[in-house]
Amino acid sequence: MTLNEAYEKGDHDERSIHLYEYIAHLDYSEGDDSMGFSSGGDGDNGEALMYLLDCYFAHKDKQSADKAGL
Length: 70
Hints:
This protein is mainly α. The chain has one domain (about 5-65). It has three helices and no strands.
């Protein structure tokens, strides 16, 4: 999946959401909110991170399927 495809799809992979929420919470609680993550909508840095994570997880899923011969 390309980044543009992820944006067009719109829905995030559940793993992306959970990882983003963990990272954002950790940054806020222990990193003094140094990244200032926000996920209110397209264009926010948290949304951008989740789209990148969507691409990562799609890539990993494809690798796993290729190894399994699917």
